[in-house]
Amino acid sequence: MTPTPVSPGRRGDRRTLLTWSAVVAVSVALALAASWIYTRDDYWSQRWTVDLTVYLASGETVREGASLYDLVIISPLYGEMPYLYPPLTALLFFVPLSFLPVGAASLVWNSASLVALGAVVWLSLGIAGVRDDRTRSVLTVVGLVLAACLLPVRIQLIAGQINMFLLLLVLLDFSRRSDRLRGVGIGIAAGLKITPLIFIVYLLVTRRWAAARNALAAFLATVAVGFLVLPEDAARYWGGLVFHSSRAGGVFDTPNQSLAGAMARALSSEQFTSWWLLVMAVVGLWGTAVALFAFRRGSDLLGFSAIAVTGLLVSPVSWEHHWVYVIPLLVWLAVRSHRTRSLPLAAATAVLVAVFTVRVFMLVGIQESPPAPMALAAWEQVVAAAYPLTGLALLALGPLWIRRNLPDADGAAPPASPAPSVSSADGTGHGAGPGRAPEGAGKGGDTVHERAGAGTT
């Protein structure tokens, strides 16, 4: 008998099922491995589920009808730990999770976080122009394992943090090819934790009015839901608590890798002064300008990364796990350096990976939560500010690299028509195949996908 041919659609569905089955299996295995490794380490076992414990308590608090913002968990290591997020976050995530014992909740939460990381790697590979489905599937699983070694991801798993879900929501928004829902993911992410609001600024400066409107509407909808379900808690949070960054911990703590944290340690002070705000305002304006420049040169991904780094720098508190937003940039740089066979770019990518993998300040004996004021030597200040200094270097050197490697004489965004040809996943320069949307073919360049030439020498 002649075997029945398998249609391309069925092969694609089977590959998709296999890919995400592998991602889920690897995620659970990594979550189990993290639990086994870190709960047996004297240092990290004290920090295991430190934030997740507060989250689970917030879910129980909502179920009992008490106030979220009267909740304070006493940590033997960190002292008083209040609930910091909007009411909707507790309703969506932590009420269901609170029905589980802490061990099971940690496994479920970390497994889901790693599945979200796999989705981030998958989207980032597509943004970087990896078109072959088989290659993309394999690289997604490999990238998931490698990305799980990054320090922001490791801290995310140890503490039981939420940032991977926020990154996925935002990245989904930027990778949409349809204009209709673009911005909704950003708005929802900002309603769960306000830091993604910086991406609405990016939408505005790049004149994507519909997406910015969608983002703002989605954000306001999350606030409204909070007021409908938990009106008193919502009034307390949005009425003032949202601005109290000091509730998140000491600004001078070494894991605070924001510009404010670096200045607090360098000046042995945690008191904000007017010139601190001026410095952060200048950095904010410069970072936004860099993001706009990258967008006009046809790279929405680099614009996305620039505005993400800007937000991390100017936030009063940016813990190490907040820096998961660099993952799409690292994936993009790795793919680009492979395609272009650029040793300098590969070396720079390797340096960035090392910076975001090794916790150098811990290796040289700098305390995590030192008494204030701190007294560090100059070289220790540099080590303790590894992330903000790296972020500043990216914003300073990035435009020079973009100007040289993404030339665009008129500085305009990519045209909607005619659609430009794109390089294939193997770098041969062939255009997109029949029935496949070409890279960067969004309306006015309104996608995170890179325009033609971004993946070629």
Largest sheet: 2 strands, antiparallel
Question: If strands are numbered along the chain, what order do they take across the biggest sheet?
Answer: 1-2
Count of helical stretches: 20
What is the terminal separation in angstroms?
A: 50 Å
- Name the beta content range: under 5%
Categorize the overall geometry: globular
- Overall pLDDT: 85
Helical content (DSSP H or I, runs of 4+): 55-70%
Number of strands: 2
Low-pLDDT residue spans = 409-457
Structural class label: mainly alpha
* SSE sequence, one letter per element: HHHEEHHHHHHHHHHHHHHHHH
What is the radius of gyration?
A: 22 Å
Number of domains: 1
Family: Belongs to the glycosyltransferase 87 family.
Keywords: Cell membrane, Glycosyltransferase, Membrane, Transferase, Transmembrane, Transmembrane helix
GO molecular function, one term: hexosyltransferase activity
Organism: Streptomyces radiopugnans
What is the fold's blueprint, element by element?
Layout: H1 8-38, H2 42-45, H3 50-64, E1 72-75, E2 79-82, H4 87-97, H5 102-127, H6 133-147, H7 151-159, H8 163-174, H9 184-192, H10 198-205, H11 209-229, H12 231-238, H13 259-266, H14 274-296, H15 300-314, H16 327-340, H17 343-355, H18 360-363, H19 378-384, H20 386-405
Antiparallel strand pairs: 1-2
Main features:
457 residues, two-stranded antiparallel sheet, mainly alpha, 60% helix, disordered C terminus, 20 helices
Description:
Helix content is about 60%, strand content about 0%. With about 450 residues, the protein is mainly α. The chain has one domain. Strands 1-2 form a two-stranded antiparallel ribbon. The N and C termini lie far apart (about 50 Å). Belongs to the glycosyltransferase 87 family. It is a multi-pass membrane protein. One of its GO terms (cellular component) is plasma membrane.
